[in-house]
Fold this protein.
Amino acid sequence: MYLEIDLIDRTQLLSPKNIELIEKMLHHAAEVEGITQGSELSVVFTDNEEIQQINNQYRNKNVATDVISFAMEELSEGEMSIEVEGTPRILGDIVISVERAKEQAVDYGHSEERELGFLAIHGFLHLLGYDHMDGVDEKEMTEKQESILQSFGLRREQDEKQ
């Protein structure tokens, strides 16, 4: 396995099948992106209330959102990357609102599994430095997300579940 993934479901709303699907999908994404073995990340599944608090605290946006990523390798201006051979690459943390994922699955007309998978991959790509701050970056990130989801076999159609 490419990643050590710590999956924490604070909501108790996800089935073991959902959690297993997301774990497999993140391993697939890591392989596609060439992530080295021994890298680490965590995924926390929460509710709208908690993700709103996190969004307010770290982004000054007092609204619930679907996913927030905290990249550990993101450097500020003037910072240097320090890599020590033999230590794991810690990618960061992904926080997903299960409530928002369920709402968006209905809004977009696809399965909850597809929405959770999309949010996990979206958050994962943010950890790797992808962004959507302008049109060019957004196009690149959107194409990468869709490519990973398609190659994993998780399509938009509600009837096609992994």
Observations:
- The longest strand covers residues 39-46.
